[in-house]
Write a structure and sequence with these properties.
Length: 162
């Protein structure tokens, strides 16, 4: 008896919640747009066109070149310099509030004397395939600190077994 009344109560609540949902959905679906909403849409469209006309692709290209000239791994001095430069530029652009929040980097940095690599090992322990430990550089960026790094260079040494 008690179990049946509990089940009936749950069914009743499910029906009520579903009914409220359907009524709210119907009101939202059938509501007509007001004239003010249409005018707001036209104004927003006008502002969007003005904004798009202000975008200067040459400046975007210049910023991208400036911030990708040197490698900047997270947590390095070069990365901090870029962050400070971006912060200064945003302040110069007139943003209300610009702040840098310090954070800890939990990466193992590359060891140039013993670079990491990825290998496929057979069942006896022989390496069948290995990734390159270095990359060829056509532009000389390997001579710079943290230059020419691969993603596996930030992983710790370890063995994955099946």
């Amino acid at each position: 008896m008690k179990r049946e009344s509990r089940l009936v109560r749950w069914i009743w609540w499910a029906v009520v919640v579903t009914a409220f949902f359907l009524v709210g959905f119907s009101i939202g679906w059938l509501a007509k747009r007001s004239n003010a909403t249409t005018n707001n849409h036209k104004a927003l469209s006008k502002y969007l066109k003005e904004f798009m006309n202000e975008i200067q692709t040459d400046q975007i290209r210049e910023h991208l070149r400036k911030f990708t000239r040197l490698p900047h791994l997270a947590g390095t001095e070069q990365n901090l310099k870029y962050a400070q430069q971006i912060m200064k530029e945003w302040q110069d652009f007139g943003l209300d509030s610009v702040e840098m929040v310090p954070y800890d980097i939990l990466l193992s940095y590359p060891n140039k004397s013993q670079p990491n690599y990825i290998s496929i090992v057979d069942h006896i322990g022989n390496e069948e395939e290995t990734s390159s430990r270095t990359r060829l550089s056509l532009s000389g960026h390997l001579q710079r600190p943290h230059g020419g790094l691969r993603e596996q260079s930030r992983d710790t040494n370890g063995t994955k077994k099946h």
